[in-house]
Amino acid sequence: MNDVKFEALQAELRRLQRVVVAFSGGADSAFLAAAATQTLGADAALAVTAVSPSLAAAELDDCRLLSSEWGLRWQPVSTDEVERAAYRVNDAERCYHCKSALMDVVAPIAAAENATVVLGVNVDDLADHRPGQRAAAEAGAVFPLVTAGFTKQDVRDASRRLDLRTWDKPAAACLASRVPTGTAVTVELLSTIDRAEAAVRALGFAQLRVRHHGDTARLEVDTGDLPMAIERRDGIVAALRPLGYRYVTLDLEGFRSGSTNSVAHQYLRSP
Asked: Which runs of consecutive H residues, i.e. helices, occur in 93-212?
């Protein structure tokens, strides 16, 4: 762990004095919630998890478990992004509308706590197209990990040093990220994707995405797991066919973030 960066993070948290952490259970937000609680105490650090159809059921369960294991002060709250037409359209600004819905709920909680909303955005995230970050910042949220100079690897290294089991947790973006830009997001579709990924995960895969392309499920796993996916193809097909997928495909490029936004995959949405 980079002690200088961790000390900088603690200094930033002390400057803020009281924080409400947007806590999704991923490696970044989990580390920030743990660090805030360690630095400020549970009375001054509240972890809030946004609950909606876009959050996988397993992730909500893990947030609950982590809060209990680490002694976090934790509060689940319901958000309504899926009820917003601008979100359901699923254009390039979907994440903006999602974070706006989050801040609409979390900002009043922070005001009641006399606290600042903080998100687990790291330096590496700044290089991506992340309209959600813009929405959060516009609503008054701040990014302590960025202020302290934490990269994604710094977060994992520091988490390991602090003995946080999330140090090597696979990335877990919201379920809507499995839907190609331009394909409408619905509660039913998010539920199907959640069940599909849970079924494949039960077959022994840790890092995976089930990308939805109409009646085609495009499975991404770590490249090292591609042989296992071939070996277990019958089980994968048997798990996904009942969910309405006529075709079950394996992406030979393996897992990668944001692949549903790639022009290279537009053909999958063609009639």
From this structure: 94-113, 131-138, 144-147, 152-161, 187-201
Q: In what order do the strands lie in the sheet with 247-250?
A: 208-213, 216-221, 247-250
> Which range among 128-132, 179-183, 195-199 shows the weakest confidence by mean pLDDT?
128-132
- Taking the CB of residue 162, how many other CB atoms lie within 10 A of it? 16
DSSP letters, 29-80, are HHHHHHHHHHHH-GGGEEEEEEESTTS-HHHHHHHHHHHHHHT-EEEEEE--
Angle between helices 187-201 and 233-240 (to 10 degrees): 150
Distance CA 219, CA 210 (A): 5
Question: Residue 265: pLDDT above 80?
Answer: no
Report the distance separating Cα 233 and Cα 259, nearest Å: 22
Q: Residue 262 contacts by C-beta under 8 Å, 6 or more apart in sequence?
A: none
Tens of pLDDT, residue by residue over 149-167, are 999 999 999 999 999 999 9
Sign of CA dihedral 79, 186, 29, 160: positive
Q: With 60 as the cut, is the pLDDT of residue 264 above it? A: no
Distance CA 154, CA 151 (A): 5
* pTM exceeds 0.85 for this model: yes
Spatial separation of the C-alpha atoms in residues 116 and 72, rounded to whole Å = 17
Q: Which two tokens stand for residue 210?
A: 């089930």
**Distance separating alpha carbons of residues 147 and 12, to the nearest angstrom:** 7
